[in-house]
Amino acid sequence: MINEPSLAPREFGWIEVVCGGMFSGKTEELIRRAKRAHIAGQKVVVVKPALDKRYSEDEVVSHNETALPSILVDTADQIVLLTGDARVVCIDEAQFFDDRVVDVANSLANDGKRVIVAGLDMDFTGKPFGPMPYLLAIAEYVTKLHAICAESGTMAHYSQRVVEDEDQVLVGEYDAYEPRARHCFRPPVDKRRGRPITPFMNNISGSASTEKETQQKTEETNAE
Questions:
Q1: What distance in Å separates the CA atoms of residue 219 and residue 119, rounded to the nearest whole number?
Q2: What is the pLDDT of residues 19-51, one digit of tens each?
Q3: Among all residues, which ones are annotated catalytic?
Q4: Domain 14-147 has CATH 2.30.290.10
């Protein structure tokens, strides 16, 4: 469920947390909220940890390649220095910060800012990830998003690691993780079980043969 407060200007601040597993749309939702605040005439600053340079160093980018300009920061304390006159502060991939980000988020909200935080609530073993449980506890608004399980096709809220690496922090994409439902989650590491996702097509008469051809091409590509 999307739990988003009103865009109406207020004299007080608050914290919103958007959480969930890999590929659930957390960054996409943070970008959506940031754009709406910008349209409403509010100054928005977006930051992300320097650790996350998967797509870009100066943008936050969702898995669907939606992007928004952002600032890389090495520590949570830098966020305060960079957002002085902002009305809205967006913090992406918050799980990669240390616990100082909790105090920073509180301080920004107490100064009258709207703070939007996005991050993984659990690591690849299914345990709470970094400062996220504390941020969830202090937030006025919490939205938990779900992906689609690569194995069962049901709602997924776990991030299944599919490469041999047991470090808690492994910045990766589809090459390293799959979304999994509870009954399909096998921590710490499991083999890849998801089927290739074919291009979306309208289910109209005559499309069955085209869809079959697309599936065959996908299988041939994966076999190479």
A1: 33
A2: 999 999 999 999 999 999 999 999 999 999 988
A3: 93
A4: no
